[in-house]
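Record format v2
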Amino acid sequence: MILAKTRQMELKTKAADIRIETVKEIGSLGVGHIGGALSIPDLLAVLYWEVMNIRPDDPSWEERDRFVLSKGHAGPALYAALAMKGYFPMAVLDTLNRPGTSLPSHCDRNRTPGIDMTTGSLGQGISAACGIALACRMKGLKNYVYAVIGDGESQEGQVWEAALFAGHRNLSNLIVFADYNRQCLDGTTEEICDLGELDKKFSEFGWYTQLIDGNDIGQIYTAIKNAQAQNDKPSMIVMNTIKGYGVSFWAGSPSNHNAPVSKEDMEKAVQELEASKKPGRNEV
Amino acid sequence: MIIPVKENKLEELEMRKVFCSTMIELAEKDDKVVLMDADLMAAMGTKPFAVKFPERTVNCGVQEANMAGVAAGLAVEGFIPLCIRSRRSRRAGHLTRYGFRAPMPRQTSKSSEATRA
């Protein structure tokens, strides 16, 4: 299933807006996980504005689709999307990771409306997503559970326990994305602990897998629709992404995992992202 | 039902039998109770629970870390999962961020020595 070009353009603009808000959140704080947060806004735009069945005015609505950001350090990007959807006022974004905030650097379901699972301890989110998917199935719900894992996170043994579990139990209501930007904190995943072909590994674990460009709105949408058409396997969508995507001086930079963001960086980045929204302009 | 020790005499009923019957009792009272295990049901004597409530038994296989995470997922959806873990599954007890924690088995210096021997 293909998403209309005009809608793709709208969602691309939405993704740029998520990036702008993310940069402002982290920029006003002065430091944060800017690289990994900028990997996923294209996915967030497709999920929150096109695919997911949600009610921002009723975050605990039983029938809703669930979302687990297992790479919880990308929280600021998700907070931007949630605020833009109306889960809480945009002004709350200015409180990121400050004392008393409802927006900690890593996701916390007890503090933030719209966050379905507490994450940040790498490897645990995908297990929790399996539990949520199992619970939804036990309750007879017809919803989907979406989750995002990091590539560095996939070095955790627990990810593979969860992969076996979901494959064995045919959790077809579970759709997981791997943000394969090939960078973890101390270097590339290839240098630190190579993951190889993630899609093939998950296939071996009994998942329906797809390999896509994770910064391409159209490919993300089509992959989700393909995943939803499966009725006997969990889905893994491996997204080749660029860490820091959308901002030229961060994109692919080796030191963008948890980095200082100066006021000047913030202004330059916002300017560049604003310009990318103009028709005909190619993004970085 | 918990049977107290009387007159300093040990109760003869096996702990695992009491455990399983208590689990069944809890599950009969509350349809949200789920029993989770990591391939130790035969050793822990919980098979009668699985026979009675197959849809509320989740045997994860030998993967205690994932079992604790799956339990967290079930719990946020309103279920009451009880994880059974043995000495081999210490890591599961480290999972505290979700707000629940099973007690860590204490290893006395005496038993440590016995293990080493």
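The radius of gyration of chain A is 17 Å.
Chain A has ten helices and seven strands.
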